[in-house]
Every structure is written in C-alpha cells, then in structure tokens.
User: What shape does this take?
Amino acid sequence: MTDMENVTRTTCPYCGVGCGVLIEKLTDGSVRVKGDPDHPANYGRLCSKGTALADTIGLEDRLLYPQINGKRASWDEALDSIASRFRQIIAEDGPDAIAFYVSGQILTEDYYAANKLMKGAIGSANIDTNSRLCMASSVAGHKRAFGADTVPGCYEDLELADLIILTGTNLAWCHPVLYQRIVQARKGNPDLKVILIDPRRTMTADIADLHLPISPDGDIALFLGLLAEISKSGCYNGDYVEAYTCGMQDAVSEANALSWDEIQSQTGLSSQELRRFYDLFINSEKTVTVYSQGVNQSRVGSNKVNAIINCHLATGRIGRPGMGPFSVTGQPNAMGGREVGGLANMLACHMDIENEAHRQIVGDFWQSEALPTKPGLKAIDLFQAVADGKIKALWIMSTNPVVSMPDANAVRAAIQSCPLVIVSDVQAHTDTLDLAHIKLPAAAWGEKDGTVTNSERCISRQRAFLPAPGEARADWWHMAEVGRRMGLEAQFDWQNPADIFREYAALSAEHNDGTRDFDIGAWQDRDDEAYASMEPFQWPARAGDVPSHTNQRFFATGGFFTPGRKARAIAVTTDGVSQAQSTSPDHAFILNTGRVRDHWHTMTRTARSARLSAHLSEPYCEIHIDDAKRLEIGDNDLVWIENGLGRVTVRAMISDRIKSGHLFVPMHWTDQYSANARIDQLVPSVKDPVSGQPASKSAHVRISRARIGSYGFAVLRDKPQALSLPYWTLARSKDGWRLEFALEEAPAAATPESIKAALAIDCANEPLAFFDLGKHRCRMAWFDGDKLVASVFLASEPLTLSREFVSSQLGGIWSGIAQRAQVIAGVPGKETPDKGKIICACMNVGLHEIAAAKSKGCCSVDAIGKATGAGTNCGSCKPEIAEILHDVAAE
Ligand code: SF4
Assistant: This one.
C-alpha cells in the first residue's frame, strides 16, 4: 500500500499529454513511479516512458559544476562573466547581438524568467524555442483564425466524440495515454469511428476504421475538398458562420476551385477513400480533428492548420462537447512556453509584440524601457544569424540543436563559430553542450519546482522529490542571477518559483477585461502554501475564480479574440504544395522523420533506461519492400541515406507500412549513442513562411546499401569510450551495454587483438575465440574471473542472433569451459529460453514469448496479456501485440 506521506505528486516530463505522476520514496532510497489516479490528463495511466521514469534519475554523466572553457568555475565567476559580456555586447553591437534558444522542456517559471531577461532587460526579441520545431504552425493557425493561440477543446472531447480524425499524428507512440483514452472510449461507444490520415500505416492504425495513406502535404487538398463538400451539404452551419465568423465565402470559393481530380492527385487517395472520409465527417456532428507534427512540420503547415479549422468553423463544430480542432503538443511544456511568450514573435501571456497596447502593458508591468518593438529571429533564422556572425552571444537551455535543428551540421558549425556560447543542461555531455564556452549545471526533472501546461490548457505542478546534486540549480535562478548582475535587482528579485508564478499571473490579468484569452489572475495573490498544494487547473482562471479542471471550452458561441470578436476563415490554397512533393531523380526518396515509442527527443533521459532501450535499440530506416528489393537492400542491412547536406548510416527495416518512394528515420539518435545517425543533418532549412516552422518530414534523399566488410554485435560490461568505427550504436542493457557495429574489413581479417583495440575492451585475460572462416564469421569472449567482460560476434552478413539472449549473459556466472562455450555460441539452450526482441518494456515480454502464447491458443491482445503480462501495465505495446498476432496468424 502506498504511504501518501512519502509520495510526491508531480507531472511526467515527456510529451504534451501532461500525465500526473506519483513518486513514492522507498526506504532504500529508490523511488516507485505510478500514474496519478486523480490527474485529469491520465486518471492513473502512464505509458512506457512514464512508467520507466525511475530508471532515468541516476547521477551518472550529470553536469555538476559550472565550467568556463572546460575548467571548473564558481557560480559567481560564471554568472559575472555572462553578465559582463552581455553588457559589453549590448554596448558595442546592440541587444540584437544576443540570442537565447530555449526549450519546451523547461518549466513555465524558467520560461518566464528567460523571456523577461531577453525582452525586458536585454531589449531584444531574439529568444526562440525548440517548440518552433514542434507546433509553431498550430500557433500561427490559431492566431490567424481565433485572434489568439487558443486550444478550444479538452481531452474529454475524445471520449464524447462520434468521430475522431487523427491527422499527422502517431498517437499510439507519441501521445500513448491519449491513444489509450480513445481505446477505452471505443469500448463504451462501439459506434465511435476513428480515421487515421498518415502516409505511414503507423501503430495508431490499429484502432482506425479508415486509414488514408495520404501523400506528404496532401492534407490541404483533402481538407479543401472537405470544405467544398461541407458547403454543399446539410452540415454547413450557416447560422454559426453568419454570427461568429468572417471570410467563409472566400474560403469556400478557394475550396471549390480545386477539382476532384486535383484532390485525388494531390492527396494520392482514391475516389472511394475520399468519399468515405467526407461522408463520415458530414454525418458525424460530434467530430474532433486531432493533429500534431505531421501537420505542423511542413512548409505549408499553417495553411494545413487553417484548412482544418475552416471545416470546424463551417460546421460550428467547435467548443462544444465532443467537437473541435485539437492540436496536441509534442513537449511537456510547449504550451507553457507559448503562454509565457517563449516564441520570438510573442510577448508574455499571449500578448503580441507588434501590438502597441500589448507592448505598453508588458513594458509598464516590467518597468522596462528596453522592450523590443519588432519580433526577433525564429529558430532557423536565429542560427543563420549566428553563422553570419551577427550573434555574438548565444545561450542554449535544455535543448540539443546540433541534433534536432534542420541542416544540423550547419547549425553545429554556426555554434562553433559563435564568440560566446552558454549552455545550461543536466548532462555532462551532449552534442551541443560539448561546444559551450560556459556550461551551467541545471536541476533535472526530479529536482525542480514549477508548473507546466499540457495540450488541453491544464496547468499542473511539477514538484521536486530529490535534492539537486553538486551545484546544479534551477534554470530560472541562472537567469535571475544574470539579470541582477546586469543591475536589475528589483526586476529579478524572486526568491522561489512561486514568486515568479504570482508575477506571471498578475501580468496575465493586467488590463485584461476578457479580450485576451490567457488569464490566470486567480493566482496572483495566492501564497507559497497555495502554490505548493496547487491542483491541476485549466485556464482561464480569472481573478475571483476558483481554479479547477472543469473541461472548459472556447468558442461555442463565438467570443473570438480578433478585433471584431469573429473567427477568420482563411482562404487557404494549395500553393507551395507541389514544390514540396517534387523529387529529383538523384534524390528520389522522401524522408519522413519522427519519434519512436520508447525514446524521447535526443535520448538524454530515455537512453539511461535499459528497458526503454530494448524496444528499438538502434537507429533505423523504414523502407518499402519493393524499394528494398529493387535496390538490393536486405532486412537489417546497414544503409547510407544521403543528400547534399550529409550522410547517415542506419539499419534497414523493410516494411509494408510505408509507401514506396518514402523512408522513415527516427529523430532521436545523437553522436553520443551512434557513429553517424543524426538524421536532421539531411533535413534542409525549409520553413513555413507564416510560422517559421521547419519542414522536417519531406527532405529528398537517396538510399543505398552501405559498403562494409563485417557486421558486428557485442555486449560489454563497461561503456566503451571514443569508438572509431564505420558504424556503431550503443544501448544500455541490464548489466552493461549493447553495441552494434561494423568494420571495413572482412571477419577473416579480425583478430582478438584488433577487436579488443577497436571496441576498447579493458581486460588483460586471453579471450575464448571461435573462427569459422568458411562461413565468414567469428566469435570471441573475454572473462574476468567467472564474470563476462565482453562477447563479440562478427559476420559478413547481418547477424541474426538474439540480442536479448546475448545481453542477458552479462549478468551470469561463467566458471567452466563448457559454460563459456555457451557464451560464444550465442544460441539459447532449452533451459535458457530466448525472449526475443522486447515488445512490452514494462513487463519485459519478448516477441518469442508472445508468439509462443499465440501458438497455445491466445488469439487476442487481452489473452496474450493474461498469459504473458504483455500490455497489462501501460498498454503502449498493445498495437504491436495486435500486429504480431496478425503476422503470426498470416504465417
Ligand atoms: Fe508521459 Fe507517456 Fe503521459 Fe506522455 S503519455 S505525459 S510520455 S506518461
């Protein structure tokens, strides 16, 4: 039973679902993680990442002390140095020569401090955030249509809808708890229909009644076609359009200008698929359209968002239970960053930098005469300005642009050329932190206090349950100290995050008479104790309100935040789409990038967890079976993907889930965990002209089988350092590390000495080795006493041995030669069954166990769960189990 006295209520630091988490401190110092049954985002559920949070809070590889030019420094030295360089740069080059690049990972209080320091103190708007890469097109679409960045609905709408359209979103992997809520809703409402619109048949297709494998950026044509159909049907809500919108006639005219043939050709969908989709929408009053990066990360992302919103405005399906357009955010506090003005074109509290009245409010409130009058540089332009030498000081917080920005190699070169680079992070090494002149140790998830906002406007507390190690301090404190040292003691006189939150709440209410959506004035006078015990609440929470989560919605009866209080239907066209879809013969494949189920962003947290690393432990490229055959690429071959910007080496995964001519590569792998798999180096710096969001899903590339001599796999007790191999990928395993690698030479050329040197194996003992040169393979293992130090397998073709089985040997006792021979055999005996690839990370259930249960008559996901435990904790693996059952049945 849980003793609530030892329990901290906090929130998950990963995706924008914003699940509540209970952390129980156990007597041995470890923690137990559970979903918070009272949190309105998840009601006790967690996905695999949330469930494994306890694996990620260790102190290994933490940045513990400030450093200047690689040497340990005191906080005073580091902060004085930053403040004095900032003053000097402002005097010599002006405030716009300083830039901040922040993150949807930091808390709202951190964000508020960063925004105030840059816009209120330094006097520039050159602060942008990695949320620009995630949902800037949604912000732009909301602002164009609603006059403010307002998410109209709430999660409950998913349970009340009769039709859920999931477009450009792999909810099963990227927002798993929302996916589980829909699965549950279907059990209660068998009539609920789900449509998935995605070029790939992702795991989310598991619940889809209709999957539309749309061409990249074909969404505009699809929703223009829908608007045209709506305008001719009975679901067109003339009363709503007349009373609460403007511009609908022009929007419908543009929609009508597109012929059915053009819609078919731009969407790549058949007439029957289009008809079914349109009929379902027209006949389902309660419709929610959920979208995320597949819509936003496009050169026409803002237009896609408005094409979707137009359909909901035309039908009046907005702001009522079970209806509305619904942008779900990628990051835990992307919404908080939007609210607090973390984007270069916003002021705090949803106020606009280009609105003079808003500038007056913020300037007066901050007592700042420095407030900029024009927007700052958005992410791509910001790093271009760094490359051009216009930025003399760059402060990067909690993000890793060397991995995640488009044209990532150019971004790395730009950062290397910047005269002063400050990076605040929790890790001792990241691809970006390693380039910093000044490194500032930040408090990590379990060590800091503040608030975050999730995708349904719900603000929740993140609470510390661990002391910050070494000299790590909260991000807001770093910035407040710099502000004070720049002579602004009064403006940055915060003692704790509650002080910041009260100030933020007061600003949101300042001269706000309901004409601005974001208002949390109810919190401006609450004391530290109230802040400490804050319950999740949705905004708005205006002065006098009792903050709570009541599934508030916007716009059922108008009340938009435009000057005339009417929504704007934007006359969207398909201009710009054909440019995105064309390919050159040289770079004939369209590269889609995205997330996998068990990793998060650049893996600085999830790669610490052996169980999260077990599901997909290597960077890979999904390629259609026909393309692979034509290019003579086999499953598990290493492949090169390249274009004029760079080349990556990843594992081929042949699949019929992806369209021919398309590739998918995850965005997570960095130089810390792989030789050359930073996929964003191949993504050009193309952006949506309205939102500035990069088009991360439509780079043009070529793919070929990599020329290598040997494929290798090793398990290692110690983490190898400084590997220099044509290919390698490291993943944590229970008792050490798994290493996939490749050599230029054939297996016959390998010797125990050469392998030992190449993999940096630290063992003086002679290895046990086996060479089968006829079959072009060799195996060797090093032992220290009866413990395994390393076992290595090498072959001229991709190795088929079970990684799970070989990894499990690291923790064994190997005393006799017969036992040791089993290690280099790499094949499980009868007494040591092989789980196979791990499918359920929570319950550690592998593919072979699921297949075995199926062969014994377990034919449903629930039956597999009962027999093996798979899918019975968070349920994130259920779609994959269903797929395995389907495949086994087919075999
Ligand atoms: Fe965390 Fe998973 Fe919930 Fe997202 S869905 S907030 S990753 S537990």
